[in-house]
Design brief:
Blueprint: H1 5-23, E1 29-33, H2 35-38, H3 42-45, E2 56-60, H4 66-69, H5 73-76, E3 84-88, H6 91-94, H7 101-118, E4 123-127, H8 142-145, H9 150-167, E5 170-172, H10 198-213
Parallel strand pairs: 1-2, 1-3, 3-4, 4-5
Helix pairs in contact: 7-9
Amino acid sequence: MEKEPWRLEKEQMVRDFHVWNESAEKGQIVFTGSSLMEMFPIQEWVKELGEDAPVIYNRGVGGYRTTDLLPILDACVFELAPRKVFINIGTNDLSDPDIPIEKVMENYDRIITIIEERIPGVIIYMMAYYPVNYDAATEEMKPCLLIRTNEKIKTANEQVKSLAEKHGQRYIDVNAPLTDKQGRLKAEYTIEGMHIKPEGYRAIFADVMKYVYD
């Protein structure tokens, strides 16, 4: 079966990661996950902080699910031998009605376990899933957001928090600046109801950096 163009593009991205990792500084900080991580320009923005800024590598891959991240952990994590890993993976799983949250967490558990085994002492920050906004969504996005609802995201976040506690890792929630009074992703920060504009990432940048410096 012929692969979709977007998947071929992402597979090339992973191949690029392998190349870039060869010259990357080891023992630094990695951000990984799916599109909501890939689209966060933190690798570029951190350079604004001057010569003493921490080194951050973004290894997010848009469209990927927990099952997609598992086989590419070398490119996204291990080749960089990071001391800290920030991860946001599983939202694409939540968009599939055939994948129960329990299965998502089972895969997520495997990801965390493998990282801990390969990098003893690593600190992992498991990020709360961002909210969505059905009312601000494009018509093309609305069917997806009938499945990936804020209620479902809230339930999943509770389980991510429990998973972090199980592993003795950190669960972090930086969603407050992104969230409106109804608990939705602020309309001015979303592209089509789900993905986030640069202005939205800028709103959480300082909060995320507090954990980077922690």
